[in-house]
Design brief:
This protein is α/β, with parallel strands linked by helices. The chain has a domain of about 170 residues: Spore Coat Polysaccharide Biosynthesis Protein SpsA, Chain A, CATH 3.90.550.10. The protein is about 35% helix and about 20% strand. The protein has a seven-stranded mixed sheet, sandwiched between helices. Strands 2-3 form a two-stranded antiparallel sheet. It has a two-stranded antiparallel ribbon with strand order 8-9. Strand 8 and strand 9 form a beta hairpin.
Length: about 250
């Protein structure tokens, strides 16, 4: 296989226990993610990687391929590595199980980046920020890139900093969207990288890659997502989907 999508679906959540099974318009959230991922053109297969029998049972009921992984994994990357270790696959797309508004073209964008440029190990997405409030919101991760669209830095702070005497009158800010594609080999390299100081300060795992001297290709998208961490987030997603179906 060339490309597979893996959806890590951890049942436990500090802020929203069992959120991947929370109902949105009558379907569990994880089903919305899976159905949208199924529409991507580049994926040869999709696997839900979960640590809970209840999640596995629900996913199997709506037709998904499921692998139950260890409960000891501390992040989605570790869970994915367990799933893909025995598989003959070139590229793996990490699709967040709590982002039911993911657009299929977003998945295709990161996959194609690696398919078309064999020198790349990892790719992710960014979207132009259109509202000032998001720029200062620490829950909205920002990214700055070089002229070739490789990540220079990710931060919860507003980057680039807009100096009062700057000649640029209308700075552009980009939101980082946490959808990743990696080569299979690089996932294991990534796992073995030491945790970086910057990663610990910002609480952003992708900074480990930059600190390790590796590059991350960042592709701009016009689509946005809403990560579900609270009941309020769930209501926002449901309202959006109701409007989409009108």
């Amino acid at each position: 296989m060339d490309v597979i999508g893996v959806i890590p679906a951890r049942y436990s959540s500090t802020r929203f226990e069992g959120k991947v099974l929370a109902k949105i318009l009558g379907k569990p959230m994880i089903q919305h993610v899976w159905e949208r991922a199924k529409q991507a053109k580049c994926l040869d297969d999709i696997i839900i990687a979960c640590d809970n029998e209840s999640v596995a049972r629900v996913a199997q009921e709506f037709g998904a391929k499921v692998v139950i992984t260890s409960k000891d994994h501390t992040c989605g990357t570790d869970r994915i590595s367990e799933v893909i270790n025995p598989l003959d696959v070139k590229i793996v797309v990490n699709i967040q199980g709590d982002e039911p508004l993911i657009h299929p073209t977003m998945i295709d964008s990161v996959a194609r980046a690696l398919l078309e440029d064999k020198s790349l190990n990892m790719a992710t997405l960014m979207k132009r920020i259109d509202d000032a409030q998001s720029v200062s919101d620490p829950n909205v991760v920002k990214v700055v890139v070089d002229r070739n669209n490789f990540a220079l830095y990710f931060s919860r702070s507003a980057i680039p900093y807009f100096a009062n005497n700057s000649e640029i009158k209308d700075p552009v800010y980009f939101k980082h969207i946490g959808l990743y594609a990696y080569t299979k080999d690089f996932i294991f390299t990534y796992r073995n990288l030491p945790v970086s100081i910057l990663e610990q300060i910002e609480k952003l795992e992708q900074l480990r890659v930059l600190d390790g001297g590796f590059r991350i290709k960042v592709i701009e998208t016009k689509y946005d997502t809403v990560g579900v961490d609270t009941q309020s987030d769930l209501e926002k997603v449901e309202a959006y989907l109701r409007e989409e179906k009108i």
